[in-house]
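Appendix B, example 12.
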Amino acid sequence: MAIPQEVAQTIVDPKAYADGERVDEAFAWLRREAPLDVAQPEGFYPFWVVTRHADILEVERQNDLFHNGDRPTTLTNIEGEQTVRALMGGSPHLIRSLVQMDNPDHFAYRRLTQGWFLPQNLRKLEDRIRLIARGFIDRMADMGERCDFARDVAFLYPLHVIMEVMGVPEADEPRMLKLTQELFGSADPDLNRSRAQVSDTNSAIAAIQEVVADFVAYFNGITADRRAHPRDDLCSVIANGEIEGAPLGFLEAIGYYIIAATAGHDTTSNTTAGGLWALAENPDQFARLKADPSLIPGFLEESIRWVTPVKHFMRSATADAEVAGQKIAKGDWLMLSYPSGNRDEAVFADPFKFDITRSPNKHVAFGYGAHVCLGQHLGRMEMRVLWEELLPRLETLELDGTPKLSEANFVCGPKTVPIRYRMH
């Protein structure tokens, strides 16, 4: 059976992700009634919806069978895909970053910066990250007893860390944050470039093109500078990087800069804001965490599972295949739903409960296999350091209004988390 139209429309609707409950209910229904089946929302090519944890892993571990780059890597309607292919000489991608690549390119390009993100190399950054975290916590204390934790702390702290790693001047951080939100929040009237509801596909794509053009203009300047004056930063690695003896292609270099400058902080920001929101709603968990800092790593993993900032990636079959008893035909498109995998009742007991002691916590929020998130160790370190510094100083915590989630079906999380608190 095909997935009912109402459910199919819900899982592609940015507003449903901003609602949270609506999309959770749709995926819970799918896991129960149609865990691997075909959806065809209005205006989209049909695609398989992969909702269960085990099936997501099954697809992710077979990179040669399920490609990232042959068809759009994120949910795109028919009109959008046709527009992008016309603009990009047949390619379905406006940006070509690691997530749009398959081997051998993926392996070669990933290796270029992989060393920067290994735990042993990140350790030398920890003291500096702690100083940055303390600065933001001091600012939170200076604000008195109220702030918007998302906008005042969670958005800005990981942004500052990754920009420092990249070598982007602090003065340019507001520009990078604005471009990131315009890219990932292109459907959200509070975040997108037009600050209005976008109803037609071509306007949305034109707005994203403008954002990408701004990134291109900015990083072209950075590339010229780092080629002339290389430094010990990530931008210098990209600007001077070579693949098989040749410099990175223009599209690939820009894709690298953009993924580092956006995903490098936005996902961590979403998780940090969502983690604090969950603590404010679960005072018992907040009290336990304050009393026992050894629970911080568990709280981190549960925050990552709870928020799951990356909502999906798409794959396409390079040959006929079978997953969970379903026959997938060569060329078929599949949507891997990470929030659904992270609420899978077969893997997580009481999955709709926020539980900082959850163990094991085998969430799929960072993906799995060859495409597992390159920056996962940096993100975890940033969050751990922030909570190690903030929790001892945070005496009380409660919501001060209703938090809101952004409208997006690809990357999203809280856009506002108003809180009241006492600190010392």
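The first strand starts at residue 36 and ends at 39. Residues 5-35+42-89+99-314+323-423 form a domain with the Cytochrome p450 fold (CATH 1.10.630.10).
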